[in-house]
Amino acid sequence: MTDDIDRAQDLEERQRDTALRRQATRAGLLGKTMTDSATECQDCEQSIPEARRWAMPGCQRCVKCQTIYEKK
Ligand SMILES: [Zn+2]
Question: Which domain holds residue 34?
Answer without folding.
Answer: 2-71
